[in-house]
Amino acid sequence: MNIEIKKSKKPVKYDYAISYMEKRLIEIDQNISKDLIWILEHEDLYTAGTSYNENEILDKSIKILKTNRGGKITYHGPGQLIFYFVIDLKKRKKDIRYFISVIEKTIIETLKLYQIDTFADKENIGIWYNSNGTIKKVAAIGVRVSKWIAYHGFSLNICNDLKKYNSIIPCGIKDKGITTLKEIKDQNYKEIENNLINKFILNLEN
Predict the structure, then answer these.
(1) pTM for the complete prediction?
(2) Catalytic site residue from 86, 140, 171, 178
(3) What is the per-residue pLDDT across 18-67, written as a single tens digit (0 to 9) for each?
(4) Which CATH number fits the domain that encloses residue 45?
(5) What torsion do the CA atoms of 153, 41, 71, 88 make, to the nearest 10 degrees?
(6) What is the average pLDDT across 98-110?
(7) What is the pLDDT of residues 14-32, one digit of tens each?
(8) Measuring CA to CA, which residue among 178, 182, 179 is closest to residue 169?
(9) Residue 81's beta-bridge partner residues?
(10) Residue numbers of the domain that contains 33
């Protein structure tokens, strides 16, 4: 396994994180750096992916940062775990759909360790939880691939403020909700980042 694991204790500015990953992507392409997994949190922030629409912004007073990742509008903030990566697919399967399934499997298998059953949806990317018949998203996925190197990643809601989502149509999906792990099951999630890393590496290298 030739992957650097980086964990940031303090919130990381979004712009800095993206430029760091883009620099790493170039270095990986030139064979001068390892692949990367980076666990962090962002401060309050709304980001828009390449397929968002203006009508998905409900509160026009909020600031939206446009990004080059896939997907639509989402929220990042305290209490949400961000799992970024820069992974060279040339050394593995050059298959983007397969790589997305690795991410989905990683989150689903990790949450099973906490007795939480979730699922992926082909129509609506992300990881979902059935809360008494109401389908709610617990993890958002946004990936970009350049030179067969995948970067960006996913966010997992642990105990973030769900009211922040009222300003947007999260990921452009109107008929489903958003939840957090603490809302689903109030338990200790302290080890979840290590569990996610272990599952991700296991699924990636298989």
Answers:
(1) 0.94
(2) 171
(3) 999 999 999 999 999 999 999 999 999 999 988 899 999 999 999 999 98
(4) 3.30.930.10
(5) -20
(6) 98
(7) 999 999 999 999 999 999 9
(8) 178
(9) 156
(10) 3-205
Give residue 1's pLDDT: 59
**What is Dmax (Cα atoms) for the chain?**
50
Residue type, 41: E
171 labelled catalytic: yes
Residue 68 one-letter amino acid: N
Mean pLDDT, the chain, whole residue set: 94
Report how many domains make up the chain. 1
Q: Which two tokens stand for residue 31?
A: 């064979």
